[in-house]
Amino acid sequence: MIYFVVGLAGVIGSLLRYYLGLSIHSWWITSFPLATLMINYLGSFTLGWFNERITQSYSVPEWLRLGFGTGLIGSFTTFSTFSVETMTLMNQGLWEMAFVYVLLSMVGGLLFAYFGFRVAYFQLRKSKEGMETA
Questions:
Q1: What are the Cα distances from residue 12, in Å, to 52, 106, 110?
Q2: How much is the pLDDT for 13?
Q3: At which positions is Na(+) bound (predicted)?
Q4: pLDDT recorded at residue 15
Q5: What is the rounded distance in angstroms from the CA atom of residue 75 to the CA atom of residue 49?
Q6: How far apart are CA 21 and CA 76, in angstroms?
Q7: Measured CA distances, 131 to 49, 85, 118, 125 (Å)
C-alpha cells in the first residue's frame, strides 16, 4: 500500500509542479529560473510545516507521512532541475546569474523550511495554550 500511495502522490506532485511552472512561465519571461526557485521555496516551507505541525499533533501513519513527504513534495520539488538550470546558465556564460540562483536556492530553501517549522511551532503552542485554558 505504501508504494501505491507514494507513487500516486508522486504523480500528483509532479503535475502540480508542471502546471505551477507553466503558470509562472506565462508571466516570467527571462533566463532566470524563477519557477523552480518558487516551487522549491513552497515545497521547503510545506514540508517543514508538515514535519513539525502534523507529525507533532497527530499520530500520522507511515503511508501518509511517506506519501506526502516523499511522494507529493518529493516530486513537486526537484534538485535535478535546479542542477540542470544552473549548468544551463553557466553554459550560456551567465555566471553571475548562476551564482545568485544557487545562493538563493540554498539559503532560501533553508529559510523557507525554517519558516515552515516556526509557523507549525507557533500553531502547536497556540493549540496547547487553548487546551490548557479550556
A1: 23, 25, 24
A2: 97
A3: 74, 77
A4: 98
A5: 17
A6: 10
A7: 21, 48, 20, 10
Residues annotated within the binding site are 74, 77
- Of the candidates 22, 9, 121, the residue with the CA atom closest to the CA atom of residue 76: 9
**Positions in the chain short of pLDDT 70:** 134
Closest by Cα among 56, 52, 75 to 6: 75
Report the candidate in 110, 111, 87 with the shortest Cα–Cα distance to residue 99.
87
pLDDT at res. 134? 64
Annotated binding site for Na(+): 74, 77
The span from the CA of 21 to the CA of 27, in Å, is 10
Domain boundaries, the chain: 2-133
**Cα–Cα distance measured from residue 90 to residue 101, given in angstroms and rounded to the nearest whole number:** 11
* Separation between Cα atoms, residue 47 and residue 4, nearest integer Å: 20
Report the length, in residues, of the chain: 134
Residue 66 C-alpha cell reads as 511517506
**What global pTM score does this model have?**
0.81
DSSP 50-112: IIIIIHHHS---HHHHHIIIIIIIHHHS-HHHHHHHHHHHHHTT-HHHHHHHHHHHHHHHHHH
